[in-house]
Amino acid sequence: MKKMQIAKMAAAAAAFSLLTACGTSQTASTAAPETKAEAAENTAAEDTKAAEETQNGAKEKYVIAGIYKMGDATWFIQEGKASQEVVEAAGGTWKYMDAKQNGATYMQMIDNCIADKVDGVLVCLPDQNLSQTTVDKLKEANIPVIAVDDALQTEDGTLLAPWVGIDGYNIGAAVGEWAAKYITENGLAEDETFGVMLLTADTVSSCVPRTEGQLAKLKEAVPDFPDNRIFKADHDTSTEQGNTAASTVITGNPQIKKWLVLGVSDEGAQGAARALEAAGLEKDSVCVGLGGYLAPDEFAKENSPFKAAAYFSAKGVGGTAAQAMLDYLQNGTPIPEKYAVDAVIVEPGDDLAAIMPEYVG
Predict the structure, then answer these.
(1) Which residue among 35, 273, 275, 360 has its CA within the 20 to 30 Å range from the CA of 108?
(2) Which residues neighbour 150 within 8 Å (Cβ) at sequence distance 6 or greater?
(3) pLDDT band at residue 49, thresholds of 50, 70 and 90?
(4) pTM across the whole model
């Protein structure tokens, strides 16, 4: 099936180039010598910051922290690695933190960053209700912040800080177009045993437009597809909840024997794939992920219904966000309000090593 390129969303600035650090001229303060006991209590970030000054007193190196809602997920590991490469190439220190989908843990990490006096923070928060508190705390500490993937925003969607992520609606629309072709080419529109499941994440603002784009394009391309064969299963984008949500819908609709599951994350689609396998419906069903990072392993499984994904680069997000933060810290370059990366649909048989080398091999 034909792959579809997704046009990059108009960004407030061109893609950032990877630059080497160039310090600003500031007067260095003289600190009293530390005792051994005090030095033992210092964090690695504080030790680094105390030592990183040039001969003329201008600061060259920075400590930047990344706090991620699911730090053990492949996407965030790759995103953090990309940020780390940019920060360390500039001679700085990178700190990777896993909030484990826990709001209290996340806020403690924010407090730790403030206590450690890091120079900048990149965050993907586990609960967007914590947006204002995050921004207020870091602003008071004079620490700049960039939101990655999930925005720091108000209830009405107003951004509270710069954001780097994906163009969710257009990526969702590309998945919807792929789904429409799948339905049409397989003659499924009139098949009453066939249904579409939208794996939604309605509490995550960055995920909502993905589903909106999927549904809008599907209905546009197959306008007569019946609404009573489109189902929704809400989850938090994780594999576990994707499995639970999909299983509930599958069990509750035994009349559907063939499923097309459209995810808002690879993890959710993977969870749905396991649910379909458990129900014995994997042979005639298909799951489509978003992210693409789990696609190589799923494509390699003989019976997995995970058959397509919208790949977009975690490196594109992580590298761009880190460079924007460095440019601001080093040169005072304003951080663009929004930046979105590209995506492409991948399927089994594609040259994944060329398309997504960070996830292959």
Answers:
(1) 35
(2) 69, 124, 125, 128, 165, 204, 205, 206
(3) very low
(4) 0.71
